[in-house]
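Archive transcription. Copying these from loose printouts into the bound notebook so they stop getting lost. Printout 1 of 2:
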Amino acid sequence: MAISNFIPEIWAAALMEAYHAQAVVTPTVNHDYEGEAARGNTVHITTIATPSIIDYKAASRVITPEDLSDTDLDLLIDQEKAFGFNVDDVDKKQAAGSFDAVTSDAGAALVEDAESYLLAQMVAHGTAVNTGSATLSDFTGAYNALKSCRTALSNAKVPSMNRYAVVNPDFTDLLLDPAGNLAKANEAGQASNLQNGAITGRLLGFTAVLESPLLNPGVPTCVGYQAAGAAFVSQMDTVEALRNTTKFADIVRGLHVYGGKVLRPTSVQVFASADAS
């Protein structure tokens, strides 16, 4: 007798991983204060005022030392994000024991969460270039917005080295117009060795123009910044596997602690399009 209703189930060992934005901006900012990132830690950053320059000759070649003022900036490592999931013994056998993809996927989601946090800090605490009067609707407007960020950085005496620009997909859509104006504008730039998220190499003095869907979604936005202008401190505090005491399963869990801060608002210039309506 034929068994016509039997439908075998096939369990694949390779799991489908989700798409993630991954780290785009966090690798490009200041990591000098990383050290040991523990929950509840605060990094105290001291900034000292620039000494005054005197006319030595006009002062009869007499120098009177001045007292320099200092300011403390607190970088809080106060973000704690975690994941945890059960791996049933049955599931483990059906998937040939391979759940590395799930763990990797969870780790990527934690990175995406941290990236969203840093971008939100940059938008909220950077310096607004657009006062709300300009609506971006084409390549010319978007290109001029990038130029405005560059000009604002230069006017603030921000070093020209290690400048980056990050844009969201709505802004990229304006830059990548059918006429190919971005390619024309970038003809003198570097086309090789682009990092994660880069849509173009050197442009308008920026080392790279990066794209992130996590930046101010829905509003064409660009942020021009210098690497030292923002700081990020991060550590994957714990990734562990342990036995579940209430069922036949293992627990896989992880904890990510981090913090981010705009250290110099003039080193982070933000241009967000006004409402088109």
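Printout 2 of 2:
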Amino acid sequence: MFEARDIHFIRRGWAILDGVDLTVAAGKIVAIVGPNGAGKSTLLKLLTGEITPTSGEVFLDGKSLTDWQPQMLAQRRAVLPQSAAVSFPFAVAEIVALGALGKLTRREKESLVARALKAVELPSFAPRFYDELSGGERQRVQLARVFTQLWSGGGNGFLLLDEPTSNLDLSHQLLTLELAREHAGTGAGVICILHDLNLAAMVADEIVALKEGRVVAAGSPANTVTDALVAELYGVSCTVGGVPSGPFILPQSVRRGTSPAR
């Protein structure tokens, strides 16, 4: 279980997070939503251990995050950031292999890399150069790296995703969320930041809404995604569940005729 208790984070006199509580149980997907500047990415960085709170504490499996050794923490959680800069001309296979943990043989590592690239629908991309790919392809390569880390660490670690669908087309947005749902189905927890409320409502067991560093709503999508919440978060008047005047796309579930590779 991931747990954040009364988290405060102050930077240059500004309260980025102000008394945030969050609990993520194994087997569940929690989506963090909210406007730009609400503190979503900061909260995720605190949960990963990248930064430490000004006050309050983060716990993983009942133990304070500060008490975890880096190598053990890497086995219990994997992180997909918003973006990842690569300064050298690495091949895709080399990027994905960076996620591999432990003393694996070359054959074992190559097998994990191939499995991960197949899962994100890039099975033939191993020899290609990372810096020659599109933004969406790079994001899927990084997702493959994250799954390589999880699988080499035992497969049941927490998955933390910061805007994992931001550069993806509709098909691969759904694929990413399907992979997250499958991972949660193994008994692992997933925490993801999403801007698309439709996608958040589709995939999440619980939605946590942040505004100005505070939790303003938390619960199931049915109980949290309301007209009033959307208006409070974004200043947008809308009717949740209503039919707009023009055409719209409402993805329902897994894409027909496809399934994540194993």
